[in-house]
Design brief:
11 strands; 7-stranded mixed sheet; 4-stranded antiparallel sheet; mainly beta; globular
Length: 123
């Protein structure tokens, strides 16, 4: 069983930055593919970014490419999402996800999920 705990969300003005963290309680963290998704009110959960087990490969949604950066520290069992140049449309609950098998943009491919952290960007 993998437990994921997100932190770092909050309220920020447009153009600002936030860094989200996701701590995993599993000894084999380095074998898991990790991803960030987000869900705004009334909308479906959407892919934001994913990272391979080694960190050498990453995927980004077009809407965040060039502004967000996903990274991981396997020694700390933590994955990060650095968010720069934030826009009001980035407002959502951000979820961390993990899976042993898939490095994917689909939420259906991830087995483990955190509880989410709220990010609100004011205009």
């Amino acid at each position: 069983q993998v437990q994921l705990v997100e932190s770092g969300g909050g309220l920020v003005q447009a153009g600002g930055s936030l860094r989200l963290s996701c701590a995993a309680s599993v000894r084999t963290f380095s074998t898991y593919r990790m991803a960030w998704f987000r869900q705004a009110p009334g909308k479906e959960r959407e892919f934001v970014a994913a990272i391979s087990w080694s960190g050498s490969n990453t995927l980004y949604a077009d809407s965040v490419k060039g502004r967000f950066t996903i990274s991981r520290d396997n020694a700390k069992n933590t994955v990060y999402l650095q968010m720069n140049s934030l826009k009001p449309e980035d407002t959502a609950v951000y979820y961390c996800a993990a899976d042993l098998r898939y490095y994917s943009t689909s939420p259906r491919d991830y087995e483990y999920w955190g509880q989410g952290t709220q990010v609100t960007v004011s205009s």
